[in-house]
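It would be a great kindness if you could assist me with a short task in structural biology. The matter concerns a single protein, recorded as an amino acid sequence and a row of backbone structure tokens. The record follows directly beneath this note:
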Amino acid sequence: MKELQTDVVVIGAGTAGLSAYRNAKQFTQNVLMIESGPYGTTCARVGCMPSKLLIAAAEAAHSIEMAPAFGVHSSKPVIDGKAVMARVKSERDRFVGFVVEAVDEIPSEDKIRGYAQFLDANRVQIDDHTIITAKRFVIATGSRPSYPGVFNNFGDRLIINDDVFDWDDLPESVAVFGPGVIGLEIGQALHRLGVKVKLFGVGGAIGPLTDPVVKDYANTVFAEEFYVDTDSNVSDMKKVGNKAELTYTNKQGVKHTEQFDYVLAATGRVPNTDKLGLENTGIDLDERGVPTADAHTMQCGDSNIFIAGDASNMIPLLHEASDQGTIAGQNAGRYPHVRAGLRRAKIAAVFSDPQIAMVGESFKEISQRLGSCDCFEIGEVSFENQGRSRVMLKNKGHMRVYAEHGTGLFLGAEFIGPQAEHIAHLLAWAVQNKMTVPQMLDMPFYHPVIEEGLRTALRDLNAKLKFGPDIINHCMECGPGA
């Protein structure tokens, strides 16, 4: 057994791990990075990038379908599934290649291949070949898809989102379980590419939304396009021949038995911390076996162990993983001199159509914190009659914005609508800069733009906070259809 000594060990070479490695190097050259799987990051290989490639193809097909509404007529689009998936995989591999190039630039003596397991708080064993003694550690092992055991009844007809991006062709039918970010994005994209899709969920949840008004609107608008039942009743799940068969009760109470080429399980992810031997370290673990860490320092208790990215079970997004990796790497590098790092305003987007976005505190978080004292107010707007949205025939959406009574401090927003990903950035900057609603309304708004809908919601909120007059339905200074 080979034995090594170093200052910092980073376990995992994904987004968080690479960031942690680079930042730890600012304080010591003695940093080792351990990786057991392929290089390339979840985002580039099976996450945000390949899913957006599939969505882009779906949007191209959908724009042709919608063209007659503008008086533009053409033949019905023909979907070449093999060509769609060839581009998805080719561009995916290109993105992965960029990450692999970055990993290749790391000195070979700093990289060790294999599975790491803690022997104690200062030693890890890599497979059966190496024991490393280190002063500090960063856990950046990412996460993996999770689904109920009963789904195994579908045998090889069961897939996860990782599998979709290795298809050579599009199937005829897919049942999607889980109307969260992954299920909603992939489900709608496949539907628009001609695949028969049925999307099932439980409890009415859709995307990451917590605001009941926005959630209800989202459920309605997606169900108008394809079969979406976020509070479904599904039974008799099994494989029959080369098909997945299930029985479900539809919204009218009628039972149906149907077969699909595949069942896509998009029911969540779990941190990859269960096989690290963390019980040997003495650090506190939650009920799922995930280390409890300070969100500002990424330190596990007062130990020499830090955690970052999806493994932390905090916010499973690339930019969050990068920020957490920066903080964890810097603190591991300079330990025991631990410092709080920059945590940016929360921002999340779902690249469905219409898009979904959440910024700052969610409705659920604000309600739990301020609801009992009635200390916050809600402004809202519908995008169904918003000028620029109607021009583009993208006039589906509803926005709710939240602010604190007395101070007018803008707290956050949940919304569904056109170009939500862009509006979300404006609102995230406002949250991070601790702007009040009156200050936000002092900012410039061009005409005609979708952002005028945001201004309408802010004016509604401003009036309810008693900082301005009641909103005028037909505001001439706003321009028509604002």
